[in-house]
Design a protein that fits this description.
With about 375 residues, the protein is mainly α. Helices cover about 55% and strands about 5% of the residues. Bound molecules: acetyl coenzyme *A. It catalyses: oxaloacetate + acetyl-CoA + H2O = citrate + CoA + H(+).
Length: about 375
């Protein structure tokens, strides 16, 4: 079966995923260095500025030094603009889960020009997510505070009260960690849409749809479901073995590109530790499940190293930050939207229409002699 594994779909200056070495470089910075020196807004400045230094007429300063004040101000005022659309979007998405409300809400946005659309789509993600979450609990939406950063404002819009700095730092580390990751499925979807000369809002709406699937961004909620089902550390090995016998995939393990440990898992594990002492029983359970899963996968697939991926520690970190598991997948989008929009800008600036071929293997007209071929 064709999966495009080895196809190079674009040239990019945004990020490099080294699957053999277990390394992620984001526009010249190792992930660990990016996270240590850049908050969410500085990461947006780094990635957008890599393609379009004039983005939104923002004075980006030197993005590599993390001078992201103008980006923060632009995102803050765009969050307020997005909030003005919230009543109409909530009315139209009443029966939808948060990820679907987000997809629909993004599609309702309109901006004047690509740069404004990039900023608005990025700013709207936390606003729409928080409003949909509160609506499902019978609570009114909380208006954004344009003076805050995206991470702090998201927690505030979810809870209705200011968040403590430790939670903000942990969430911000998460958002930066997932900001960009090569030609992943949702980024590719965004680039395909952008390559038709469609607009950034449409590209982000399509990317949210791609992110939703459990093989991409939908895994962290099921990671916690798995921990709940395992119940105790002593049950981990038997539960994992039974799940694999049933042919199930273990959420939070394996990756198409990494042949070793996903470096994002360790960055998020460190962020979890930095939050301070957690529930010891939960920690012991998570460690037992991770160990049992890695051991069992190594035995079943000796030729294919399947290790912990970003989603396992995403689940544990977001749970510790106090995020409801229904929000895990859309939360991934709140971080990844920076990468999506940077790739959209890059595709528009440097790419051409993406139009691969298909190999036709269906029935042929009577008397025709052609057989399966790559023929568009
Ligand atoms: N649990 C059980 N078996 C697995 C897992 C897993 N997590 N991952 C791979 N395998 C199996 C495959 O079924 C395949 O078996 P087969 O040869 O008998 O068919 C074999 O290992 C090799 O699979 P790969 O080629 O390595 O897997 P692929 O590249 O197709 O899929 C994917 C990668 C989708 C991430 C897969 O590992 C998976 O489903 N993981 C669980 C879901 C998950 O954690 N998703 C988040 C990924 S990270 C991200 O996108 C942000």
């Amino acid at each position: 079966m064709t999966t495009m594994d080895d196809v190079v779909a674009a040239e990019t200056v945004l990020s490099r995923v080294d699957g053999e070495g277990g390394r992620l470089v984001v526009h010249g910075l190792d992930l660990e260095d990016l996270v240590a020196a850049h908050g969410f807004e500085a990461t947006a400045a780094l990635l957008w500025g890599a393609i379009d230094p004039e983005l939104g007429d923002l004075e980006l300063g030197d993005p590599e030094l993390g001078d992201a004040g103008e980006v923060a101000r632009a995102l803050g005022s765009a969050r307020a603009r997005a909030f003005a659309r919230v009543p109409a979007i909530l009315a139209a998405t009443e029966d939808l889960a948060p990820i679907d409300a987000l997809r629909a809400g993004i599609a309702c946005l309109a901006a004047d020009g690509d740069r404004a659309a990039v900023v608005l789509a990025t700013a709207a993600m936390p606003v729409l997510l928080a409003a949909a979450f509160r609506r499902d609990r019978g609570l009114p939406p909380v208006a954004p505070d344009p003076a805050l950063g995206q991470a702090a404002d998201l927690l505030r819009m979810l809870d209705g009260t200011p968040a403590d700095p430790g939670r903000v730092r942990a969430l911000e580390t998460y958002l930066v960690t997932v900001a960009d990751h090569g030609m992943n499925a949702s980024t590719f979807a965004a680039r395909v849409i952008a390559a038709t000369a469609s607009d950034p809002v449409s590209a982000v709406a399509g990317a949210v749809g791609a992110l939703k699937g459990p093989l991409h961004g939908g895994a962290p909620g099921p990671v916690l479901d798995m921990l709940d089902a395992v119940g105790t550390p002593a049950n981990a090995a038997a539960w994992i073995a039974a799940a694999l016998d049933r042919g199930e995939r273990l959420m939070g393990f394996g990756h198409r590109i990494y042949r070793t440990r996903d470096p994002r898992a360790d960055v998020l594990k460190a962020a979890l530790a930095a939050l301070g002492p957690r529930d010891p029983a939960r920690t012991a359970l998570a460690e037992a499940v991770e160990r049992a899963a890695r051991d069992a996968l190594a035995v079943r697939y000796p030729g294919r190293r399947l290790d912990t991926n970003v989603e396992f520690y995403t689940a544990l970190l977001l749970e510790a930050v106090g995020i409801d598991r229904a929000l895990f997948t859309p939360m991934f989008g709140v971080g990844r939207v920076v990468g999506w929009t940077a790739h959209v800008l890059e595709q528009r600036a440097t790419g051409r229409l993406i139009r691969p071929k298909a190999r036709y293997v269906g029935p042929v007209p009577a008397g025709d002699t052609f057989r399966a071929a790559a023929n568009g």
